[in-house]
Specification:
This protein is of the alpha/beta class and 189 residues long. The chain has helices spanning 12-16, 29-42, 56-66, 95-124, 137-148; strands at residues 2-7, 49-52, 73-75, 130-135, 165-170, 176-183. It has one domain (2-187): Rossmann fold, CATH 3.40.50. β5 (165-170) and β6 form a beta hairpin. α2 (29-42) packs parallel to α3 (56-66) and α4 (95-124) packs across α5.
Length: 189
């Protein structure tokens, strides 16, 4: 089995460094262009099914990918970004927000991680060989930790740019190894 995780394209809030969480912020013009480039980049890759968050920034990105595959596109609310409570819409340019947000995430991440692991297991049980998952920054970090058997506290070692691709291949013992990490070459001119 091959799992390909893909982060959504850019939004205005990404550009402004605002925390999005589950706020349904749309792709901006750059994000749409990124999604189009991403779709072309992935056109030649095998794909049997695409799972996506129901938030429009991920769903629209997934639709651009699927324009080249025409496979089942499964909208999965469990792939939403972590809920960020009162931090949604706040700026990461404010050092006080960053400090308080880091503390909040240290407390909230384990519950989000457990939820992501449950939803990921349903995806792993889908019976498909080549699976794309289109989701969000913190959700993908949780998926990476789950696939690699790492505790959620290790999430900070993974960078995930807008439309970044990570590819994981299942080994004969059932574990996963990472074969491509944070690939955004499709954005290069």
């Amino acid at each position: 089995m091959t799992i390909t995780t893909i982060r959504h394209g850019q939004t205005d809030w990404n550009l402004e460094r605002k925390l999005q969480g589950r706020t349904d912020v749309p792709l901006n013009a750059t994000g749409i262009d990124q999604a189009i480039r991403l779709g072309k980049r992935l056109a030649g890759e095998p794909c049997d099914i695409i799972y996506t968050s129901d938030l429009q920034r991920a769903k629209v990105t997934a639709e651009h990918i699927n324009a080249h595959h025409q496979v089942p596109l499964i909208v999965e609310p469990g792939l939403r970004e972590a809920g960020l409570a009162e931090f949604e819409g706040q700026s990461l340019h404010d050092p006080q927000v960053v400090t308080a947000f880091d503390q909040y995430m240290n407390e909230a991440s384990p519950a989000h991680f457990e939820q992501v692991k449950r939803d990921l297991q349903k995806i792993l049980d889908c019976g498909k060989e080549h699976v794309f998952i289109v989701a969000h920054y913190m959700t993908i970090r949780a998926i990476i930790c789950a696939l690699l058997g790492l505790p959620i506290e290790e999430r900070g070692q993974f960078t995930i740019g807008n439309t970044a691709i990570h590819v994981f291949k299942q080994r004969s013992d059932g574990t996963f190894g990472i074969v491509l990490e944070n690939d955004t070459d499709h954005l290069d001119d």
